[in-house]
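Shipment paperwork, digital attachment
Item: protein structure file
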Amino acid sequence: MSGWTVIFNLVLVIVLSVVAWFFAPKQDRTVWRSSIILFLAMAYLMWAITYLCQLHPLVVPRRSDLRPEYAE
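Attachment content:
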């Protein structure tokens, strides 16, 4: 189920980018489009990397309060 969260948010960012493309103000349209779409893409990447790193950590935490015979 957690993999679907990343895909759902990607689709949401794509839809918002398309909306920003068509509804950008007439004045300085290129700057508005670039800024909004770049913001959405970078915010999604930052969120996705953080989310996936917490979902599958590289280092497994270990408890330090156990006796050695029970620590595995």
